[in-house]
Q: What sequence folds into this?
């Protein structure tokens, strides 16, 4: 539950602290914090010795997968800057569905009728949240923001499948992923807005996102999945609480009112995810 509560703060905190800070600057700084924290945990747990088993091709493949984590965060941060945190979070939660789609393509998992129904159900949710907030023209900020969040969700779905396919130690892999994210943010950030000095208040956001959202939540989730006496499916279902909790966090931190359309849209999206999840368990 700790991981769920931490992840629920992501949309609101990113939007709050990135208001006057370039997206890639925030992402770069937070990624460095996350990588360093994971490195300390890896050393303390003794898992650092596993790096001896890695060949150059393993490092290259892991780094390539990390690029998709960078793209996910960069696109999501960009989209949140043009949408409400509420809308951005809801669209972002298409990533479990995109994971299923990429698993069918890359890992040759069966593409069942139930998965198609789940896709339609989730995309109805996107239509509801889009129409309720005004569709906007193709060149409008809202349209670009939605497209960016959808692209980010797709990148995270692809990242999840590639990470699963490689099946390497998650501590070491996550260190590489966040280091790649930091380096890519630094390189591409030079072509965007000029970076600014980070204020004391903004450092709080960088610290929270990097240490807790990027690193600690993933470790807590791994402990819950691997160390709990309950079935994995029961624990995994807690992840569906993230977007619902996120609505209340945005209400408290940003003052964004929870609309009936947001709840309807979220119900369709999460309903679609649950349909495909039930299909997999069956």
A:
């Amino acid at each position: 539950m700790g991981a769920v509560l931490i992840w629920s703060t992501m949309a609101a905190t990113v939007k709050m602290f990135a208001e006057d800070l370039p997206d890639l600057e925030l992402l770069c700084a937070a990624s460095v914090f996350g990588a360093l924290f994971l490195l300390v945990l890896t050393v303390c747990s003794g898992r650092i010795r596993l790096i001896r088993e890695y060949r150059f091709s393993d490092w290259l493949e892991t780094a390539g997968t990390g690029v998709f984590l960078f793209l996910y965060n960069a696109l999501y941060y960009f989209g949140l800057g043009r949408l409400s945190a509420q809308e951005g979070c809801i669209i972002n939660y298409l990533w479990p569905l995109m994971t299923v789609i990429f698993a069918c393509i890359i890992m040759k998992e069966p593409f069942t009728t139930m998965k198609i129904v789940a896709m339609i159900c989730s995309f109805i949710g996107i239509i509801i949240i889009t129409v309720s907030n005004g569709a906007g023209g193709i060149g409008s900020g809202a349209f670009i923001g939605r497209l960016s969040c959808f692209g980010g969700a797709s990148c995270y779905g692809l990242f999840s499948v590639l990470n699963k396919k490689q099946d390497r130690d998650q501590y070491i892999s996550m260190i590489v992923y966040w280091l790649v994210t930091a380096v890519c943010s630094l390189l591409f950030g030079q072509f965007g807005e000029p970076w600014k000095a980070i204020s004391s208040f903004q450092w709080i956001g960088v610290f929270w996102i990097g240490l807790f959202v990027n690193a600690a939540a993933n470790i807590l989730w791994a402990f819950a999945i691997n160390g709990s006496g309950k079935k994995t499916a029961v624990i995994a279902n807690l992840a569906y609480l993230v977007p619902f909790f996120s609505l209340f966090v945005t209400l408290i931190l940003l003052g964004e009112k929870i609309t009936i359309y947001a709840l309807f849209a979220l119900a369709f999206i999460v309903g679609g995810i649950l349909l495909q999840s039930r299909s997999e368990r069956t």
The chain has one domain: 2-281. Residues 2-281 form one domain. The chain has 13 helices and no strands. Confidence is low (pLDDT under 50) at residues 228-232.
